[in-house]
Amino acid sequence: MVEKDPEKLEKEETKDGSRNWGKTILKIIQCVILIALPSLLSFPISALTSGSIDSWYKDLKKPVFNPPNWVFGPVWTTLYLLMGTASMIIFLKLGW
Q: What pTM was estimated for this model as a whole?
């Protein structure tokens, strides 16, 4: 029989042996908020700049390797999700 480390036992289970679901759910909510936060903060900025795309962006001289316009949405969404994931990892490492 393998004995559990007492410090890990306190983190995983309460004194009566049941798992502390409140802390687990709170940690999940914190992770979801941290991942979604960069995307949510980008919406007001995109609303401010989306009107100017038709006025000046289409008239720019773009390089040959410029990707098509439809690529920007998925790429920026992925970047924002990765920024949120990175912030979540940092906060979890710091013990937040």
A: 0.63
